[in-house]
Amino acid sequence: MRLPDVGAPGAGAAETFVGVLGGVGPLATVLFMERVVRLTDAARDQDHVDMGLQHATVPDRTAFVLGRSVDDPGPVLAADARRLAGAGAAFLVLPCNTAHAFAGAIAGATSIPLLSAVDVTVSAVLSSDAWTGCLSGSRPEAVGLLATEGTIESGVYVDAFSARGIKALVPDVVGQATVTSLIYDGVKAGRGSDLTALEGVVANLRLRGAGAIVLGCTELSVAAAATPPGLLPDVVLVDALDELARATVLRAGRRLRADGQHSPMRRRPPGP
Fold first, then answer.
1. pLDDT tens column, 47-97
2. For 115, phi and psi rounded to 5 degrees?
3. What residues pair up with 92 in beta bridges, in sequence order?
């Protein structure tokens, strides 16, 4: 069943319904949709992007990728993609980085294109706007990747960065345990965590040569939103959720607000 026609949402703009393969996880999906709203240059309700689906009971992506569960999220995500296609979605977005390991199952279920969070995040790191005139130094030769064990094991980011000549560095065993705990015991458990626990992990990645840190898990985006402004002041953070939200607004045919035109990377302070 298609959504009812509600008319053009803005002057000269065609109505576009964005199919959000959401609920993976629920709080991250809510934050993603909020970011889309806040980034959209809108003067009224009808100027915003039509979007939706929140399916929280999709099986755990990391558990399946690591072989700890036999519950395959692929068929569930594929079924959701078909539901959204039937509802009239023009394109799909997936506010879960680990779930991009199942992009093939989604692509096989419908001809509706998937706007990849991985692709837009890699593009943000490569963007000349990010490094020329905004940040000191040249484009990084390596980035630090903070993500679930499933995302790292799947290789979706490591491979995408490697294809563009950038090495993706991941935390050591102890550091990854800290990242995993923040994601699962903190954000997914509803404990309101921020990025404070990752200061040491980030410092280690930078010592190993990471010129930027990629938040490759949307639960980490939730933690970043709760992080005090003074934390990690000299670290360049590239947030996959922010990049996907920005790309979604543009793909849907809307304009970005003036203050949302560029990636909200944390910039190094001026000085030698």
1. 999 998 899 999 999 999 999 999 999 999 999 999 999 999 999 999 999
2. -80, 110
3. 19, 114
Residue for token pair 């639960």: 219
Integer angstrom CA distances of residue 194 from 136, 185, 222, 225, 239:
27, 12, 8, 8, 14
Can you spell out the DSSP letters for 6-62?
---SBTTBPP-EEEEEE-SSHHHHHHHHHHHHHHB--SSGGGSPEEEEE-TTSPPHH
Q: How many Å apart are CA 58 and CA 73, to the nearest integer?
A: 6
Q: Is 149 within 8 Å of 176 (Cβ atoms)?
A: yes
Which residues are designated catalytic?
Answer: 96, 217
89-93 sheet: strands from edge to edge: 50-54, 17-22, 89-93, 114-115
Do the beta carbons of residue 15 and residue 2 sit within 8 Å? no
Say if residue 25 is preceded by a cis peptide, omega within 30 of 0.
Answer: yes
Q: Are 207 and 169 in contact (CB under 8 A)?
A: no
> Cα dihedral angle (111, 61, 221, 28), rounded to 10 degrees?
70
Contact between 73 and 96 (Cβ < 8 Å): no
**The whole model's pTM is what?**
0.88
